[in-house]
Amino acid sequence: MSFLKRIDFILLIPMVGLIGISLSIIFSTTPLLFTQQLIFIIIGLILFLFFASIDFRIWPKFFWFFYILSIILLLVTFVGQQVRGSSRWIDFGWFRMQPSELIKPFFSISMAVLFSKSYGRSITKIIKPFLFLVPIVLLIFKQPDLGNVIVYLFIFAVCIILSEIPLGTIFFGFASLFLVLPAIWNFMKQYQKLRILSFLDPKSDPAGAGYNALQAIIAIGSGRLFGLGFGRGTQSHLLFLPEYHTDFVFASIGEELGFIGAFLVICFYFVLLGRILYTVSKQNDRFARLLALCIFAQIFIQVFINIGMNLGILPITGITLPLLSYGGSSIISTFIGLGIVSNIGKSMRSKGPIEIK
């Protein structure tokens, strides 16, 4: 079949390894969710094949459609009922869609298009992309979902760093951001403030704000080298570890599979991210490079923050671990992004650069 020529099988190897571990740990810790996770992964694989088979050069034509649809989906989340004080989901009955997760690859397309169309070494080149960024970030922050706000800002920051703006100007811009942190602090929810304070000193409130971080550290430490074995993780099975199948799935892996299992997960991510960077290095097209790097940034920052918060070296935020955490929106979003990267890597370079109008 001709579409198989567009699939990067080296990229597929770590993907299969990660979803295999995901299904195993979900079956061990939360067997009732195994079937749903399997369905999400099957849908994700189908979408991976679909996006891998479509020439990435077509996506700039749908730029406005993707952007407007993203705004609409984020607005719809405020119509339904809140879940644990948040308006992050659209409820379809058996499945809740989280737009802030689902639209990530389409946001990457938007940023790649906008920065591809911007030339010159002036700071003004980032004004238009910034104006497109603000509504999305504000809507996600309002939900509230600080974790995904960080992801979107990181993607935007990577685009700025890769632009031709002088490094001194970029440094001044990021330095200025720290001046507004006190104002951002005032807009944060109380539980978000407590998470940051508990990160600085988890033992100050071990039964409250610092509870999640301490339990994650205990779970990983108890796994030692080879782990306690599938189904034997006390922290997750006795419900000491919260969100052990989503935000703290890495701690569950460390507990049941030990250092070996956790190290294997990190190796899979290393190969996955390395393959994306290899794809970037082989591209002469500016749009292709930016798009692949945006997807790299999306996956990298989620892996970095999630594993960091599981190890207790970063504050706790609601960020899932790509391809491992339970959740359809995150899995589908990641598969779509990787499908696009696969197509970029396998597309014929002889076609030349795309013209973005």
The sequence of SSEs as H and E is HHHEEHHHHHHHHHHHH
End-to-end gap: 33 Å
As a whole number of angstroms, the C-alpha radius of gyration is: 20 Å
β-strand amount: under 5%
User: What value does the average pLDDT take?
Assistant: 84
**Which descriptor suits the 3D outline?**
globular
Q: Helical content, roughly?
A: 55-70%
Low-pLDDT windows of residues: none
Characterize the largest beta sheet: strand count, sense, and whether it forms a barrel.
2 strands, antiparallel
What class, by secondary structure content? mainly alpha
Counted beta strands: 2
Number of helices: 15
Side by side, the strands of the main sheet go 1-2
Description:
The structure is a single chain. The protein is an all-alpha fold. Helices cover 64% and strands 1% of the residues. It has 15 helices and two strands. A two-stranded antiparallel ribbon has the order 1-2. A hairpin with a 4-residue loop joins strand 1 and strand 2.
